[in-house]
């Protein structure tokens, strides 16, 4: 009598599902991003922001509120909705822990600004600052 | 009432050299579903663990920009091919190897009412939870969808989830009535001499051929009319021993005026649930587009101030009830009442409304098409830097190049005329379908029953053009939230 081996497919499928379930279960809580311990305060002119070119001022401070120097600051304006092309600008220093940039907001709605730069000790600074409610002209 | 034949065999795509040869082969669906399943897994994993910035995550980007764009364009140019390649079917088939379904879908639930509620529920959740901007929630939505389908289909036989529950499936079924391709029999006489009915029942394995699956949605090919409830799986093509099933081109939208009873569906004019689905599909398109323009915020704010509430859900709930229940019932009711007057019949208003509601579908599809094409065409290339970034994150090497976030798509000014053209196309087909229905109702003076529905469709067209002409405002700012 010829014995046929049982198909390994159900077991493989069950193992794959179990492995995927474990990976997914680990993602039950939302991922959080680490900060460099530097607060970023953003002001946008005009306020409230409008579609078009706006002036963005950023102030960096440590836990005590003292200004923190950040070099090579680059900002990226992006929208909450996927599929939009972001705007970029290099910021120029204005004073201690204080930079400014001109950024183009191309559409009304909710934006966020990604701030990237280099701290004095060489660490990278990456912060997201919300810019909600950009209005049309 | 005259019989309007929608299924006129014009050109069998299965006979074309390359595409036809591919489609006739068994296994290509498996490959397509496997590819989309792999993509879904990547999207879910990045949604759960990747950047939570929506524009930089495949979960949100592919789900809300590219998938929806490809979906409507495929429906416009070919047919319901996304149901064909649905990766959920692959997962379901694997699940059924472990647990065999043991129940039939309850007879009392064999309608579209639950699916309509789920379709509205998805639209509501999309607005309430800001899903377009939340990769983590989008990933869980995808997982939940897979889980629900698997759970239903390991319990209930056939394609119960697809036919009676799946909100995306209903969207595809309704949209595919205006698609240019349809699965149909080649020669009815061949079916008349068939005793096996393999297209419906399938066929067991033989020493030379594997088992073939029949239509899981209960459509018997010789009595199939149009695309409703057809997932384009082509199981019937592979099951038919006479090779008597074609993938034929046809006149889009014509089936909406076809009064014949259709297998698995029945006559359209007797299906109140399907007519309501058609209305929700059309008015939902306008509501979904309305959520993208700035006047919606003023309206929501006024409603919130008037009612003295700060929570979003009741305001959205009121908007949904008004837009998807009150508006369609009032407008279709008025048009049907007017039609009854000009026809001078004793026929009920509901019956007339049901018959003509299907004529709204092409216009509704035009609105969905315009809206989704806006996102798709203006953001088509935005997946490039996201893929580059993903490759860099996973491998630590810029395998696909350094992420270039300047990739975008077509300019809005260029897309706008395309949107208007697609909308106009939908409007024209709606009018043509309405005229056909009107001619069946009053052969001598079809303009009389045509007029009420033409007025209604014109009003909806004006609303849609107004919406498209509004500057887009990517939302999430409701009540400052």
- Mean pLDDT score of chain A, rounded? 85
- Share of residues in helices of chain B: 55-70%
Write the H/E string of chain A, N to C.
HEEEEEEEE
- Count of strand segments of chain A: 8
How much strand content do the residues of chain B show? under 5%
**Percent in helix of chain A:** 10-25%
The residue ranges of chain B in which pLDDT falls below 50 over 5 or more consecutive positions are 1-7, 476-481
Rounded to the nearest angstrom, the distance between the terminal CA atoms of chain A is: 83 Å
Largest interface summary:
A-B, 36 and 45 residues
Structure description:
The complex is a heterodimer of chains A (137) and B (481). Chain A has one helix at residues 9-25; strands at 39-45, 52-61, 70-79, 87-90, 92-95, 98-105, 108-119, 124-134. In chain A, the strands form 2 sheets. A 4-stranded antiparallel β-sheet of chain A has the order 1-2-6-5, with no helix packed on it. A 4-stranded antiparallel β-sheet of chain A has the order 4-3-7-8, with no helix packed on it. Chain A has one domain (39-134): Immunoglobulins (Immunoglobulin-like). Chain A is extended. Chain A contains 1 helix and 8 strands; from the N terminus they run αββββββββ. Chain B is mainly α. Chain B folds into 2 domains: 1-263, no CATH class; 267-481, no CATH class. In chain B, strands 1-2 form a two-stranded antiparallel sheet. In chain B, α3 (58-77) crosses α17, α17 (361-378) packs parallel to α20 and α19 (412-441) runs antiparallel to α20. The longest helix of chain B has 32 residues, at 312-343. Chain B is globular. Classes of the chains: A mainly beta (137), B mainly alpha (481). The A-B interface holds A 9-10, 13-14, 17, 20, 23-24, 26-27, 30-31, 33, 51, 76, 78-86, 88, 107-110, 112, 114, 128, 132-133, 135-136 and B 41, 44-45, 48-50, 52-57, 60-61, 64-65, 94-95, 97-98, 130, 132-133, 136, 139, 143, 294, 375-376, 378-379, 382, 405-409, 471-477, 480.
């Amino acid at each position: 009598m010829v014995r046929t081996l049982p198909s390994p497919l159900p077991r493989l499928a069950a193992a794959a599902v179990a492995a995927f379930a474990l990976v997914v279960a680990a993602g039950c809580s939302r991922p959080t991003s680490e900060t460099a311990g530097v607060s970023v305060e953003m002001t946008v002119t005009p306020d409230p922001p409008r579609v078009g070119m706006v002036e963005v001022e950023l102030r960096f401070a440590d836990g005590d509120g003292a200004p923190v120097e950040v070099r090579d600051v680059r900002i990226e304006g992006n929208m909450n909705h996927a599929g939009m092309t972001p705007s970029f600008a290099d910021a120029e220093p204005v004073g201690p822990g204080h930079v400014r940039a001109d950024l183009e907001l191309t559409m009304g709605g909710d934006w966020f600004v990604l701030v990237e730069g280099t701290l004095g000790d060489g660490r990278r600074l990456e912060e997201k600052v919300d810019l909600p409610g950009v209005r049309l002209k | 009432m005259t019989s309007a034949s929608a299924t006129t065999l014009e050109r069998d795509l299965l006979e074309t050299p390359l595409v036809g040869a591919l489609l006739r082969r068994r296994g290509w669906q498996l490959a397509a579903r496997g590819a989309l399943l792999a993509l879904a897994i990547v999207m879910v994993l990045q949604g759960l663990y990747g950047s939570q910035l929506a524009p930089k995550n495949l979960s949100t980007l592919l789900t809300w920009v590219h998938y929806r764009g490809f979906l409507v364009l495929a429906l416009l140019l070919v047919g319901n091919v996304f149901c064909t390649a649905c990766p959920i079917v692959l997962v379901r088939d694997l699940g059924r190897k472990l647990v065999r379904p043991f129940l039939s879908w309850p007879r009392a639930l064999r309608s579209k009412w639950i699916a309509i509620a789920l379709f509205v529920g998805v639209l509501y959740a999309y607005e309430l939870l800001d899903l377009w901007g939340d990769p983590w929630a989008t990933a869980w939505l995808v997982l939940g969808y897979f889980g629900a389908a698997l759970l239903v289909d390991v319990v209930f036989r056939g394609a119960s989830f697809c036919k009676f529950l799946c909100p995306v499936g209903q969207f595809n079924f309704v949209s595919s009535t205006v698609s240019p391709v349809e699965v149909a029999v080649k020669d009815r006489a061949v079916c008349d001499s068939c005793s096996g009915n393999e297209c419906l029942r399938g066929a067991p394995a033989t020493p030379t051929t594997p088992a073939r699956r029949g239509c899981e949605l209960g459509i018997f090919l010789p009595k199939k009319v149009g695309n409703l409830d057809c997932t384009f799986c082509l199981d019937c093509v592979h099951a038919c021993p006479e090779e008597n099933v074609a993938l034929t081109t046809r006149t889009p939208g014509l089936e909406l005026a076809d009064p014949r009873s259709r297998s698995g569906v029945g006559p359209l004019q007797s299906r109140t649930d399907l007519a309501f689905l058609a209305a929700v599909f059309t008015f939902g398109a306008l509501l979904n587009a309305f959520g993208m323009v700035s006047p919606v915020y003023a309206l929501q704010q006024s409603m919130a101030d008037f009612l003295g509430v700060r929570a979003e859900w009741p305001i959205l709930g009121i908007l949904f009830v008004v837009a998807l229940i009150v508006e369609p019932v009032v407008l279709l009711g008025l048009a049907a009442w007017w039609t009854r007057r000009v026809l001078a019949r004793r026929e009920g208003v509901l019956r007339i409304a049901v018959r003509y509601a299907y004529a709204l579908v092409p216009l509704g599809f035009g609105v969905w098409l315009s809206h989704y094409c806006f996102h798709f065409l203006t953001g088509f290339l935005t997946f490039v830097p996201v893929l580059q970034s993903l490759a860099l994150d996973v491998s630590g090497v810029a395998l696909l190049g350094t992420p270039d976030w300047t990739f975008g798509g077509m300019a809005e000014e260029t897309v706008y005329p395309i949107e208007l053209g697609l909308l106009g196309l939908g409007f024209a087909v709606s009018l043509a379908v309405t005229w056909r229905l009107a001619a069946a109702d009053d052969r001598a003076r079809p303009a009389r029953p045509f007029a009420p529905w033409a007025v209604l469709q014109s009003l909806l067209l004006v609303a849609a053009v107004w919406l498209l002409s509004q500057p887009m405002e990517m939302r999430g700012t409701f009540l400052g939230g």
